[in-house]
Amino acid sequence: MYYIQNLEERSYKIKKKSVQEWFSFETILEDGIIKYKNKYVKIIKILPVNFDLKSELEKKAILNSYKLFLKTCNFNIQILIQSKKQDLTSHIFKIKKVKEENPKIKELKEEYISYINEKNSENNSSIKVFYIIIEYKIDKKDVNNFNNAKRVLNDNYFKIKESLSRCGNIIYNISEKKETFEILKNFYNLER
Predict the structure, then answer these.
(1) Which pLDDT value is given to residue 6?
(2) Which 3 state secondary structure label does DSSP give 158?
(3) CA 149 distance to own-chain centroid
(4) Long-range pairs for 14-22 at CB < 8 Å and ≥24 separation?
(5) What is the pLDDT of residues 40-78, one digit of tens each?
(6) Are 31 and 19 in contact (CB under 8 A)?
(7) 167-171 long-range contacts, Cβ below 8 Å, gap at least 24?
(8) From CA 160, how far away is CA 44, in angstroms rounded?
(9) What is the pLDDT of residue 84?
(10) What is the C-alpha to C-alpha distance for residues 134 and 24, in angstroms, rounded to an integer?
(11) Packing angle, helices 103-122 and 89-97, rounded to 10
């Protein structure tokens, strides 16, 4: 990301800002926890279930599990969605490699490849990744605030994991500094 300095003086200087300059966090600590001035934050990555492919009964069960998730979260959460365009060329290549003798299945395979090629050329294929952000507000009187924050954030992570896993989602604990940094960098497109 770039910004322009000294607009009032009409002196335009372009400077590339680091991730830390754009975000007000102080550092990324162990377990991927982000420290701000007045809080600690944890990021949880969710690979969602494809709701559209489920039967009506499964959809009801997923919605009920999601309601339970919302009731279980007696703490603040923020949900962020990242949608990325996906190149399906390698997927098409894998399908073409499969040998098939049955003419009906061959025809279906060709129709499917045609459909995927169309979506790929239109650039309409994308993957969605959800992130849930949870926080722990720092109490200035608490001398063990990081240990308490870590315990509370991890407890809340397990509550979220248990609830959302029932819906069929895959839950990832972002527990490394490098992974946390990459999520922040990718989410705000700092390479572009």
Answers:
(1) 42
(2) helix
(3) 22
(4) 19/181, 19/184, 19/185, 19/188, 19/190, 22/188, 22/190
(5) 999 999 988 877 767 889 889 889 888 888 888 888 888
(6) no
(7) 167/49, 167/62, 167/65, 167/66, 167/69, 168/49, 168/62, 169/46, 169/47, 169/48, 169/49, 170/46, 170/47, 171/44, 171/45, 171/46
(8) 9
(9) 72
(10) 16
(11) 170
Report how far residue 192's alpha carbon sits from residue 186's, in angstroms, rounded to the nearest whole number. 10
The set of long-range contacts for 181-185, using a CB threshold of 8 Å and a minimum separation of 24, is 181/19, 181/28, 183/43, 183/45, 183/131, 184/19, 184/23, 185/19
Sequence letter at residue 168 = G
In the numeric block, which tokens belong to residue 138? Answer: 């720092």
State which residues of the chain have pLDDT below 50: 1-12, 19, 190-192
Tell me what pLDDT residue 2 has.
40
Q: Token pair 């499969």 is at which residue?
A: 98
